[in-house]
Specification:
binds ligand DP6, 36% helix, 8 helices, four-stranded antiparallel beta sheet, alpha+beta, 320 residues
């Protein structure tokens, strides 16, 4: 009763920020993301009636802090009368760097857990289960450009354009490898309860989703750049206006953002997006990747630059 699955992180262009049902972790808004290609997390779930408790082993070290969320996710996928599990996680990118490792981890966990228990759940069901563990994880079940929509009591996700059809690149400037000051889940709740901009953020999301969908359909880079940067800055404005304020940026985050805007005004096909952390993700046209990498590497405070194309949804690697 053992299975291994692999999933890649995804980066939202039109962001999820806010929960309409915190208990069931249902998002308040739809979102659109790109699934990355070269960064991945592999999760191996081993179920054994002889185990006396669940264990999570991340890059060969026991991890107690994420264990309750992983155990809850296994209960959700397999049922609470399941055998205890050992879950091994291997990540080929820095876990603490705020690069959406929870999305790839939970996406891979639901696929591996379902296979290890002998079930054959659909991708739609697995996406819904991943979303209950972490909202953004639902999107990593799908490759390329993925859209998450709210349905009545759930979410549904689909690939709206295959990554091969518009092979954009994502260059990630790492500006800090410290842990987040506050988790995105907690921060969203602070925003919902205190930010004067929260209601307006929710109301306007439909417009941004429609514009992004049109831009992706038409492969209109400039249109996607404008709506993505707008949506990102709007989400961070909601955070900044919360009480207490939620500020994930550092000086290098701002310098990267400005550097990317300057590159675009000089004709380079690139735009930025920033999630609940200080790293800057630059989405660019493939032929401009080297220029973007060089420019971001030269910014003071950037400690690492990673780049990748777009990739596939979560999948089973091995099952025994
Ligand atoms: C800023 O999916 O980490 O990256 O559902 O509480 O686990 P939980 O939140 P999470 O939030 C992601 C927030 C974001 C935007 C996005 O990915 O859409």
């Amino acid at each position: 009763m053992r299975a291994t699955a692999r999933a890649q992180p995804n980066i939202a262009l039109i962001k999820y920020w806010g929960k309409r049902d915190p208990a069931r972790n249902l998002p308040a808004v739809g979102s659109i993301s790109v699934t990355l290609g070269d960064l991945y997390t592999e999760m191996t779930v081993s179920l054994d009636a002889g185990f006396d408790r669940d264990r999570l082993v991340v890059n060969e070290q026991d991890n107690e802090s994420m264990l309750p969320r992983i155990s809850a996710c296994l209960d959700n996928v397999i049922g609470t009368s399941r055998a205890h599990a050992r879950v091994d996680s291997l990540c080929n990118f820095p876990v603490a760097a705020g690069l959406a490792s929870s999305a790839s981890s939970f996406a891979a966990t639901v696929v591996a857990a379902s296979a290890a228990s002998g079930a054959s759940a659909s991708t739609a069901t697995l996406a819904s289960l991943a979303g209950q563990a972490s909202g953004s994880a639902a999107r990593s079940l799908y490759g390329g450009f993925a859209e998450l929509k709210n349905t009545r009591n759930d979410v549904s996700v689909e690939t709206i354009l295959d990554g091969h059809d518009w092979p954009l690149k994502v260059v990630i400037a790492v500006t800090s490898d410290g842990p987040k000051p506050v988790s995105s889940g907690k921060a969203m709740e602070i925003s919902r309860k205190t930010s004067p901009f929260y209601g307006r953020w929710i109301e306007k999301q439909h417009d941004d989703l429609r514009i992004a969908r049109e831009a992706i359909d038409d492969q209109d880079f400039e249109k996607l750049a404008q709506v993505s940067e707008h949506n990102c800055l709007k989400m961070h404005s909601v955070m900044w206006a919360s009480r207490p304020p939620i500020v994930y940026w550092n000086a290098a985050t701002v310098d990267c953002m400005q550097g990317i805007r300057e590159l675009r005004s000089s004709g380079v096909g690139v735009f930025f997006t920033i999630d609940a952390g200080p790293q800057v993700k630059a989405v660019c046209i493939a032929s401009d990747e080297a220029r973007v990498r060089d420019a971001l590497s030269a910014i003071a405070g950037v400690t690492d630059v990673l780049s990748t194309g777009l990739g596939e949804g979560a999948r089973l690697v091995e099952s025994a």
